[in-house]
Amino acid sequence: MSDSESNAPQRRWWQHPLVPCAAVAVLLVAVGDAYPLSPFPMYSNIDTSANMLLVTNEKDEALPLSRLFNSGSAQLKKRFEKELQDQTGTREYQDVKPEQQVAAGQAFLRDLWAGRDKGDVAKLPAPPQVLRLKIRTMTMNGTEFGDTIHPIADLAVTGEGGEP
């Protein structure tokens, strides 16, 4: 044995990189499905339907929500559901009468329009005269795909400042 080989540090068996991996594997098998070591079923039970909020103009052209209102569809949907909850006691638009949907939808659209970015509205090719609130429901049952749009409410935004 040469001098350089005898001076090299000896690697112990527990210092091998596979030992911590094996220890973690044994621990996970021993613990099983106990939080936080359980595999969360985040995507194993996907809903068969999803709702999306749409705000369109009088020509049914979707408005750029994040640019005009500084919120995306998901955030605005939650705000609409809160308005619906405040007025009717439920967040599910399907569970309320059409006139309750309209009332909550118009209140939501008034609030949304009041908080608009006026500079970005002015940059649109044609500022909207009417805001239309709709819920788009996409469903998937087996190989069948469904896509329906349910109108909720309309709000006229007229006048010099575009006030309803």
Descriptive account of the structure:
With 164 residues, the protein is an alpha+beta fold. It contains six helices and three strands, in the order ααβααααββ. It has a three-stranded antiparallel sheet with strand order 1-2-3. The N and C termini lie far apart (92 Å).
Q: Sketch the topology as an H/E string, one letter per element.
A: HHEHHHHEE
Q: Assign a percent range to the helix content.
A: 25-40%
Q: Given the helix and strand composition, which structural class is it? A: alpha+beta
- Mass-distribution shape: elongated
Determine the strand fraction and express it as a percent band: 15-25%
Describe the sheet with the most strands.
Answer: 3 strands, antiparallel
Task: Work out the helix count.
Answer: 6
Q: What is the radius of gyration? A: 28 Å
Stretches with pLDDT under 50, minimum 5 residues: none
Distance between the termini: 92 Å
Average residue pLDDT: 83
Number of beta-strand segments: 3
Order of strands across the main sheet: 1-2-3
Question: What oligomeric state do these chains adopt?
Answer: single chain
Could you provide a short overview of the structure?
The chain is an alpha+beta fold and 164 residues long. It contains six helices and three strands; from the N terminus they run H-H-E-H-H-H-H-E-E.
